[in-house]
Amino acid sequence: MQLYERASTVPTHSYQRQDWQGGYESLKTEYDYWIDDIEGQIPPELQGTLFRNGPGLLDVNGNAIHHPFDGDGMISAIAFHNGRAHFRNRFVRTAAFVEEQQAGKILYRGVFGTQKPGGWLANAFDLRLKNIANTNVVYWGGKLLALWEAADPHRLDPATLETLGKDSLNGVLADGEAFAAHPRIDPRCNQDDGAPCMVNFSIKPGLSSTITIFELDPAGNVIRQHAHNVPGFAFIHDFAITENYCIFFQNPIAFNPIPFVFGLRGAGECIKFQPNQPTRIVVIPRHKSRQMQILETQSGFVFHHANAFEQGEEIFIDSICYESFPEVEAGSDFKQVDFDALQPGQMWRFHVNLQQQTVLRALIEPRCCEFPTMHPEKVGRPCRYLYMGAAHANTGNAPLQAILKADLETGHRQLWSAAPRGFVSEPIFVERPHGEGEDDGWILALVYDATHHRSDVVILDARNFEQGAIARLHLKHHIPYGLHGSFTPE
Ligand code: 3ON
Ligand code: FE
Fold first, then answer.
1. ipTM of the predicted structure?
2. Parallel/antiparallel/unpaired status of strands 271-273 and 208-216
């Protein structure tokens, strides 16, 4: 009797947690080889390099870190050349990485709860930030930059991935000054006669917080920079741009630094979600002459935005929202997470009217999803197709095992799934040279394959997911689940 009852309430999963956990093992070796184990064919027109960043080490000499966001940044580069592909990975030699590897132990606290050995007494009053350079990697202005939102970028050699040192953006950033990990590239900037420009920001949190906007020309020079104060503490990971605005979601959180100061928790574990407070939408004009506006919408937590665009005095923003901030328990093991106990991230469309000061929102994708992406030419403009990592099942919360293509015009969806033993990372859209249409190109993604404990570089035809992958490039090893990356055509 009891067995029957249990069977009807236990949900069936498209994955096993133990399989998922395998993707959170450290990768300690740095490789350099031509990929020769390939299913299918690499399209010969696909030329350029896919750069990925993410935590490469989940332990320091056997001592586990507390949260993957605390892991040292490791860059992978997959270079496509005449139908062949070359793989290379290198750790970013941040000062703290080099010190800890030499010492063979954890010497710095992490924002997400990693502590030095020795209990709270050994950690109290150590308020230094370890710049781990683990969140994104972009090639802009002739420089390859590894980004981490709470400090300055590290510059790497794009061919060898050797760390060249920290980069001040030609003297603009002071030592240690923040530069976010989510730059957006405006493909045709209306202040620069249609030339592309890279827009990014920094947050200085406090009782009131400062948001600074940076715009860089194609040579890598900061050509516009302006700072704005917003009331309250701000933890803002990503933003969206339109032709004339930068849009930030200030999540409703309270920050109590006492447990951090006394060595009990990481700074990121001192964030408390405020379900009864609204989310604030901060709209900052990219032209200095116009005024910042702050609007309110329902409470929720946003890490990532897909895109935004303007229509007259209205702005539309597509964002992945959580019902609350997934707080990390100080004593818990992230690998033991109960996916079913958490709320999924879902895609919402926000409709902001700047004249009437109103915000409406609508759920546009109920499936659990993260890491939204799109055609680079559509950034800040209306776009028809979004691509994102997604759960295999259409309801509930689960690890990302599939890639979803959403047609926002017709509502049609296509899903490519790596379940039951595959786990996906952020997809990247690469346009086909001289392509026709917004989905004429490829989706590139790293997929962790638990069957072989290795990762594959998967290439999909963005127009047609349902025919299966065009190519699966089997690496000789796994790559720990990463965060963000970019593609640089040759
Ligand atoms: O103390 C303040 C609060 C705070 C949290 C100030 C601060 C600037 C020191 C700070 C630091 C924030 C940092 C360093 C944030 C870093 C975030 C990061 C490395 C990654 C975020 C990833 C987000 C998502 C949604 C990842 C999803 C991953 C999956 C679905 C699984 O693969
Ligand atoms: Fe991110």
1. 0.96
2. unpaired
* pLDDT recorded at residue 289: 76
pLDDT digits (tens, 9 = 90+) for 57-102: 999 999 999 999 999 999 999 999 999 999 999 999 999 999 999 9
Q: What is the pLDDT of residues 243-298, one digit of tens each?
A: 999 999 999 999 999 999 999 999 999 999 999 999 999 999 999 878 999 999 99
Amino acid occupying residue 149: E
Burial of 76 (0-12, 13-18, 19+ CB in 10 A): buried
Burial class (CB in 10 A: 0-12, 13-18, 19+), 312: exposed
Ligand 1 and 233: CB distance under 6 A:
no
Nearest residue to 196 (alpha-carbon basis) of 218, 178, 223? 218
| CA 185 from centre of chain | 15
Asked whether the beta carbons of 115 and 328 are under 8 A apart, the reply is: no
What token pair was written down for 210? Answer: 């400062």
CA dihedral over 175, 178, 184, 187, signed as positive or negative: negative
CA within 13 Å, CB half, 119: 1
Q: Where are the domains of the chain?
A: 2-489
Report the separation in Å between the CA atom of 127 and the middle of ligand 1, taken as the mean of its atom positions: 17
**Which residues have CB under 8 Å from 391's CB, separation 6+?**
14, 344, 367, 368, 369, 397, 398, 399, 400, 401, 402
Distance CA(251)–CA(274), nearest Å, equals 9
Instruction: Give 83 Cα–ligand 2 centroid separation in angstroms.
Output: 30
For 245-284, b where at least 16 C-beta lie within 10 A, e where not — what string? bbbbbbbbbebeeeebbebbbbbbbbbebeeeeebbbbbb
Question: Which of 402, 408, 409 lies closest to 460 in space, CA to CA?
Answer: 402
135 lines ligand 1 (CB under 6 A): yes
CA angle 285, 289, 290 (to 5 degrees): 45
Nearest-CA residue for atom 5 of ligand 1: 268
- Rounded to the nearest 10°, the torsion over CA 390, 474, 337, 326 is -50
Q: How far is CA 301 from CA 82, 272, 316, 319, 374, in A?
A: 43, 11, 18, 10, 22
Nearest CA to ligand 1 atom 9: 150
Lateral strand order in the sheet of 301-311: 301-311, 314-322, 346-353, 358-365
